[in-house]
Specification:
The protein is mainly α. Helix content is 53%, strand content 3%. The chain has 5 helices and 2 strands; from the N terminus they run E-E-H-H-H-H-H. Strand 1 and strand 2 form a beta hairpin.
Length: 193
């Protein structure tokens, strides 16, 4: 349970921030860049969701994803446990394989209704799809940042897998949303030469 009585603590005034285990790292640390990128991607997912019918299946998918992205941020901010490693337990929220499996099931379900790609697609289309393209791009940046952070510390490999699958999910969801509105916007190499 999270309970915030006070928003400012002044503990970060020295340029550090706290991790879940109470340790502190510089706000400029690669891990904090990854966590910040996950937060930004989550914000863009929320902006995309605002362009959807709240009762739609797509909005429900994005609601689950937004909650999981908070789980993901907590996972990245929690160093491995001496006893449990990266396994979930009462004191650590971890991304688990079933969350990735659900993303894959949703990807497959949407992809089964789409034509095969014959070109790269341009980010755009419906308002929700265009917003999701931005969320996808930021998710890919978050993945790169997490991989960079993982070069200096142990991170949950399942969390990294989740980020990779999430960018795939957001891409297929943009195609799914655009299919209803007339299809993908295809790249035409050299069209303006």
């Amino acid at each position: 349970m999270v309970k915030l009585n006070k928003i400012y603590t002044r503990t970060g005034d020295d340029g550090t921030t706290g991790l879940v285990d109470g340790s502190r790292v510089a706000k400029s640390d690669a891990l904090m860049a990854a966590i910040g990128d996950v937060d930004e991607a989550n914000s863009w997912v929320g902006i995309a969701a605002a362009a959807l019918d709240p009762a739609s299946d797509e909005a429900a998918m994005l609601a689950r994803i937004q909650n999981e992205m908070f789980d993901l941020g907590a996972d990245l901010a929690t160093p491995p446990d001496v006893q449990f490693g990266f396994g979930p337990h009462d004191m650590a929220l971890r991304i688990v394989p079933s969350q990735i499996a659900r993303l894959e099931d949703e990807i497959d379900g949407m992809n089964d209704t789409l034509d095969a790609l014959k070109s790269f697609i341009l980010p755009g289309g419906t308002e929700a799809a265009a917003r999701l393209h931005l969320a996808r791009a930021v998710t890919r940046r978050a993945e790169r940042a997490a991989v960079a952070a993982g070069a200096t510390r142990d991170l949950n490999p399942i969390a990294l897998n989740y980020l990779n699958r999430l960018s795939d999910h957001l891409f297929v969801l943009t195609r799914h949303l655009n299919a209803v509105a007339g299809g993908d916007i295809l790249w035409k190499p050299g069209a303006t030469r």
